[in-house]
Amino acid sequence: MQKLVFISLSFIFLLSCGSSKSKINTKKSPTKTTGTKKTSISPLALKVVDNAKSYKGTRYKYGGTTKKGMDCSGLIYTAFKEEQIVFPRISKDMATHGKWVDIKKVQKGDLLFFATKKGSRTVNHVGLVTTARTGHVEFIHSSTSKGVIISNLAEKYWYFAFVQARRVF
Q1: Domain that includes residue 128, residue range
Q2: Does residue 81 register a pLDDT over 70?
Q3: Distance (Å, rounded) from C-alpha 12 to C-alpha 9?
Q4: Which residue in the list 17, 97, 136, 141 is annotated as catalytic?
Q5: Overall number of domains in the chain
Q6: pLDDT at 97 over 60
Q7: How confident is the model at residue 1 (pLDDT cuts 50, 70, 90)?
Q8: N or C: which end of the chain has fewer CB within 10 A?
Q9: Nearest one of 143, 140, 145 to 128, comparing CA atoms
Q10: Other CB atoms within 10 Å distance of the CB of residue 96
Q11: Residue 137 and residue 64: Cα distance in Å, rounded?
């Protein structure tokens, strides 16, 4: 099933991004045991998370994609780009890639999408899961007030702004 998802995603990336090369790894991923269920976390997903974490503390800058400043989608775009993965630049566009994941089944490397504008459910913010265990999900993102930080999905603001989770790897 994962190979099918991988092949589908690769095909989508190639169609939408021309002939850009991607280093997506097709080797078996290590498994992580959570209770009685085994879930596989892609080594590439772990690299993307590490890339994003390297920007922790970077100030917020609308449209930014560098250590000088970045916005939420710029952080994700850059973390993917460092692994030669072409990914959309805008959070709303990112929210259409990958496979929808139930919030109870998110894992490290999944993307979380939020609607932070009052009275709207349109995606305008994205974060990358850094920690996921039953009842506890943390994600890295770029906040307008604090820059690149790690937040907890259980925080009231993020809990109510949450729209969906997606798995790209």
Answers
A1: 2-167
A2: yes
A3: 5
A4: 141
A5: 1
A6: yes
A7: very low
A8: N
A9: 140
A10: 11
A11: 26
Residue 17 bears catalytic tag = no
C-alpha 110/C-alpha 166 separation (Å) is: 6
Q: What is the CATH number of the domain that holds 25?
A: 3.90.1720.10
Task: Choose the catalytic residue: 17, 97, 125, 136.
Answer: 125
Average model confidence (pLDDT) for the chain? 84
The β-bridge partners of 69 are 66
Q: Is 20 helix (H, G, I), strand (E, B) or coil?
A: coil
On the question of pLDDT at 38 being above 90, the answer is no
97 catalytic, yes or no?
no
Q: Catalytic pick from 17, 72, 97, 136?
A: 72
Q: What is the tens place of the pLDDT at every residue in 103-139? A: 999 999 999 999 999 999 999 999 999 999 999 999 9
**Burial grade of 145 (CB within 10 A; 0-12, 13-18, 19 or more):** exposed
Q: For this structure, is 72 an active site residue?
A: yes
At 40 the pLDDT is 85
Cα gap 86→111, rounded to integer Å: 15
Does this model's pTM top 0.90?
no
